[in-house]
Design a protein that fits this description.
alpha/beta; 172 residues; 2 domains; Hypothetical Protein Ychn, Chain: A; 5 strands; 5-stranded parallel sheet
Length: 172
């Protein structure tokens, strides 16, 4: 019997296998999907990327004092960071019984909401679409909300998205 002589030693073959596997793992995603960016979550993060500070306020109860507290916090935080020459983006997310605060015929803070819309462009309002759907089923008609509130699919999902985008979540 003839003895075959190996052209490469075992350590060299192992190193070649490791390099080949590494290249495959690196190149396969690029070949399969190309150079793509991940999909964005609900909302437009580009609109809020200018801010160095981010705050989301949760209003989920139909209590005037809670909404007033959220508006006070928004005004105070906005003023604080403005004094520090920093930009701040504030999003007030409203869902559940808190939706009353965004309904023109029912909101006890309507005048203050209008003032925020006119004088504080860094503060925005998000209304939960799921809550609006529930109210529509219960009342037979889709409830009207203030025109400057954005409707998001789900208020809690919006808070989760904002958290992932670096917002601090506060429930007054």
């Amino acid at each position: 019997m003839r003895c075959r002589r190996l052209l490469y030693s075992a350590p060299i073959l192992s190193a070649i296998k490791v390099i080949a596997v590494g290249l495959c793992l690196t190149l396969m995603p690029m070949l399969a999907g190309g150079w793509t960016m991940p999909a964005r979550a609900q909302g437009a993060e580009d609109e809020i990327s200018f801010a160095t500070q981010r705050l989301a306020l949760q209003v989920s109860v139909g209590d005037e004092a809670v909404m007033r507290s959220a508006l006070d916090i928004a005004a105070n935080v906005s003023r604080f960071f403005s004094d520090q020459a920093e930009e701040v983006d504030i999003r007030i997310v409203v869902f559940g019984p808190g939706m009353t605060m965004l309904r023109p015929g029912m909101s006890p803070v309507l005048d203050r909401l209008k003032a925020f819309d006119q004088s504080m462009p860094n503060v925005s309002f998000a209304a939960c679409g799921n809550t609006l759907d529930s109210l529509e089923r219960a009342e037979g008609v889709r409830p009207e909300i203030v025109e400057y509130a954005d409707i998001v699919v789900a208020g809690v999902a919006e808070l989760m998205r904002l958290d992932q985008a670096g917002y601090t979540i506060v429930k007054p």
